[in-house]
Model the fold of this input.
Amino acid sequence: MDNKSPHLDQLRIDRSKPVSAPWRGVIVLLLVLVVLGVGGAGAWYYWQANAGLPIHAVTVQSDSAGGGGSSLDASGYVVARRQATLSAQIIGTVVYLNADEGMHVRQGDVIARVNDSNYSATLRQAVAQERQAKAALDDAAPIYARYQRLRDQSAISMDAFENERAAYDAARTAMEVAEAAVAVAQSNENFTTVRAPFAGEVTDKVAQIGEIVSPAAAGGGDTRTGIAQITDMDSLEVQVDVSENYIDRVRAGEKATITLNAYPDWQIPASVIAIIPTADQSKGTVKVRIAIEAKDARILPQMGARVSFLTEAGKAEAGSAPRPAAITVPLNAVMGGGATGTVFVVHYDTVEARQVRLGLKTAQSVTILSGLAAGDRVAAGDLATLHNGAKVRIQD
Done:
């Protein structure tokens, strides 16, 4: 036991000795870092609270100076007033086809033909029967005329005369039936040729040579009901849906401008053709037809389009005051939807939540009917973090 005491004494910690200088420096450094971290975090939060939330701001612009210019925007599509899907009026196999997408055709041009062998045979048979009936009528006519003279002279009995008249009437009726059969057979023969009903462009080629076509789905399988589609490019116009709440702003003959989605920087002059006198109950809209006053090969059917209806600056409508200029803001500058919404008007470094009445919405903007004036600045972007009186800072 005594022999182990010196070794145990070596293992004891002498707490009477002070901590060495290197360890004291490490502890002091850690304390300094903690104090600086807490102070920095506090300063950051203080700076954030006083600097305000970062926002983007836009200046409200009037759609027109002095109350004129665009009064309403609406979206729609380019449509063709004259467009036809061509098909044979009888069932048959396509043996000739002269149609490709993009081809220009004239009125009356032959677009396709279907096999006419059966119809040609029927026509020849009808013509032969017509000749036979005509020969019979040619034989019966002079005999009937002679019997008329004999009757007038009381040289034959009435029974003999009536029998001859019946034979003549039968021959004449047979001739009329034969003529009608020829007309039907000729019509069926004509139906095997498909012609362009008007001048235009081939916009779709449906059938191919060798396929069976029919004016209606018949026979099952892959029977086609069309051959090609022709569009009169001179009949193109734009049709838009206008909310029934704003249809009173649209007038027939009023000037407008068209902007195609494919060419957003191209302003096409236009005018209102007509307001379709019925509303779509499901959408609450009224369809309006717009004339394209500058024809161009770039305008194609089914292109998306936006129409801006124009009014004369400073002029009042009959019996009403002049319309105020429309105010629009980007969609991301408004919270809410329906008839009213909220915008945040920027006052130097704070924002004011303001209720506004909303009008027509487009893909990029919304019309403000009341609550804002031209020149106001409003916040745009993520508005969920804003509230009335919130401090903000404007980012570029």
